[in-house]
Amino acid sequence: MRYVKWTLRIVVAVLVIAFLHYNLPQRDIVRITDTYEKRVDPGANAWFWAARESGSDPTVTSRDVFFIQAVRPNGKVIVYRNEDTGWGWPPYFKFDAATLQAEAADLRSTKDNPQWVIVTHYGWRNEFFSIYPNAISITPIDDPNVTLIPWFNIVLITLLLVIALTLRQLWRRFRRRHIDPLFEKADAALDEADQRFDRARGRLGRFIDRLLGRAPR
What we know:
Layout: H1 2-23, E1 26-40, E2 63-71, E3 77-82, H2 97-106, E4 116-122, E5 134-140, H3 151-212
Antiparallel strand pairs: 1-2, 1-4, 2-3, 4-5
C-alpha cells in the first residue's frame, strides 16, 4: 500500500510540475531571422493551440497563425507561434498578436549584424507533435550574455508552496480534531459490539448445554 501511495504522489507531482512548466512564462535570448503566416488545422494537438478568436466560424477548423523564426546564441533554431490568448487559458490576456508580429518583423537581423531580443513565451516546442511555444512579448537587448532571473516564477511558485503547506496543515488539524475522533468512536463501538456478541454467544452456548444435559463449558 505504501508503494501505491508514493506512486500516486509522484504522478501528481509530475503532472503539477509539467502544468506549471508549460503555462508559466519563460524567456529566451534569440535573434529573429524571419516571420511568416501559415494556415494550420489543429487536430490531435489542438490543446496546444490557442482558442479560436471570438466571432469566427466554429465550423471552420483551420485558421491562419503567425510564426516567428529565431536562432539562439548557440546556433540552435527555435520557432514560435504568435497567437492571441484572449480571455482564455493561460491568463496572459494577449490581444496584440498582429502588433507583435510587426515588431518581430522589424527586429529581424542577420548573423553578421545581429539584433538580439528577449522573447517571453509559454509552452513547449515538440517537432514530432508540431507543438510551438506561444510568444507573448519581444524586448530588444544589446548583449546576449545577460542573465535572466525568473523572478515572477520564483515568487509565484513560493506562494503556491506556502498555500499548499498551509492547506496541508489546516487539513491535518481538521482531521485530528474532527475525523480521527469519529474513527476512534467507531472502533470503540465495534469493540463493544464484539464483546457483547461474545457474551451473548457464551450465554447461548451455556443454555444449549443445559438443554442437552451436557457439562457447562
